[in-house]
Amino acid sequence: MTTQIAPKRHKRFTGKKVSLTISAWVLGFLFFAPYLQMLLTALKPQEEITAIPPTYFPKEWAFDNFINVWKEIPLGTFIKSSFIISMSATLIVMFIAIPASYYVARNDFRGRKPFLFLVLVTQMFAPTALVIGIFREIVKLNLVNTYLGLILVYAAFNMAFSIWILSSFFSSIPKEIEEAAWIDGCSRFSTLTRIVLPLSLPGLATAFIFTFIAAWNEFVIALTLTSSPEQEPLTVGLTALIGFYQVQWQYLFAGSLIAIVPVVILFASIEKWLVGGLTAGSVK
Amino acid sequence: MIFAFVLWPAFEMIRTSFQEVSTSGITQGWAGLENYRTLLVNPDLPNVLIRTFIWVVGIVFFTILISLPVAQLLNAKYPGRKLVRWAVIIPWAASVVMSSTIWKWILDPYYGVLNKIAIDLNIFSEPIDFLANPKHSFAWLMLVAVFVSIPFTSFVILAGLSTIPDDIVEASTVDGATAWKGYRHIKFPLIKPALLVAMAINLINIFNAFPIIWVITGGGPGYETDTTTTLGYKISFRDQDIGQSASMASINLIIILVFIGIFLKVSKSQERNA
């Protein structure tokens, strides 16, 4: 009896493993498929895009779409704008959020609770909901069509999340480590830079990349606040390819892929830390 | 000094949110009330409100429902797990505008790949315009929204799962719990905090999800696939009626506060039960 069950069990175990693997791979493919379609479309020449019936794979691989798109629209300018805006916003966020969340994590000051609540509330109001208020404010400040306008808005709206993540990271570092450093003659500031920050590197990376990507991908505010190709970031600039009568899909998708690939790589590179970063954020 | 530094962005945002309200109130004076009146008699508004409700509740529900098993799959051990995780990350990292554009293209009646697949598989013989009927296109919009929401949600749940020590699960198996029971009674309560966070953030994101609708249907035909968010945008930047749109936005803020309020209440009572 037992000898019969044992191999059966073994077989069921591997069967389970195989089906698990297959379903995971199918799942992965489902999430990847739209972007594969994006790539395949980006590699088709114009006449094949509007062929009926459509083709799965390009008959003729138009790799030069990825070269021509730079001439079709000022892609280089868009990328430059996106990069300057996202990077500046991210640096501002980090510059303010690191000391702020360290302070919040280490001191039980009066008004700490209301402060954290305020942070949470700001997290609730997405920029989309406030777009009109933001628009009027930016008009008043004379910052329409400037990098600075977008930078300030993005920095302000991503601050809350970063403070939230970072303060839970900082408070997870035992105080004793810092006290030991003080005894060894470290100043408060160098304790922060030499002990606390290296220990919370995963949290810092998460906050940094989240802010960067949120700014890189933002659409509504950018759509509202910019109207000249000089200042438009990528997300808005690419929509120029959606013409009134005709959409140049191959260039639209080639440009999109050029925008997507770096952030996906960035994101995938912190995948290991991502889970830890989110854990810290959600437990708190 | 740090305290001031800290509070500045928070105040800045609160100030902005107040400005929002005062755009109709102060700038327009008593005309502000007129704005609300015009908005409230808009015959499309009730439908838009109902649609917004379906939009938020439906998408959050399905996102969570699908993300739970997805997180389970991302957490299990099998060859190529890293690649699968990376694939699931893509829609999260990619801009929603671009993801929406590719979906619009996939759903295209003439050139879209979905029709091609369906015809090749003999599911139907003639190409179908998936977005022709507003009810259908709204369902497709919701599907796209679920698609872009799952990655974040399942990673938050995954983060919750990864904090569960293996021996707890093992102990329950030794005690004779089936896989499902172990999940239901051991794992699920432990990932609940993560789940609540994911739900709250999804709630806010979905309510404000603008690009998906804007890119794929533009809220059209007419206002048939608009939510309050896209309607507000249309009123202000297409109809150029800033005052009325500000009242729409203010109503939006109230709606999201109500959603959040309900959510907080539910999660608090959940906590007490646990």
Describe this entry's structure for a reader:
The complex is a heterodimer of chains A (284) and B (274). In chain A, helix 7 (147-171) runs antiparallel to helix 10 (201-217), helix 7 crosses helix 14 and helix 8 (175-183) packs across helix 9. Chain A folds into 2 domains: 14-63, no CATH class; 73-283, MetI-like (MetI-like fold, Orthogonal Bundle). In chain A, 76% of the residues lie in helices and 0% in strands. Chain A has helices spanning 2-42, 46-49, 65-72, 75-106, 112-124, 131-140, 147-171, 175-183, 188-199, 201-217, 220-225, 234-237, 249-269, 271-283. Chain A contains 14 helices and no strands. Chain B has one domain: MetI-like (MetI-like fold). In chain B, 45% of the residues are buried.
Annotation keywords:
heterodimer; A: 284 residues; mainly alpha; MetI-like fold; 2 domains; 14 helices; 76% helix; globular; disordered N terminus; B: 274 residues; 12 helices
What's a concise summary of this model?
The complex is a heterodimer of chains A (284) and B (274). With 284 residues, chain A is mostly helical.
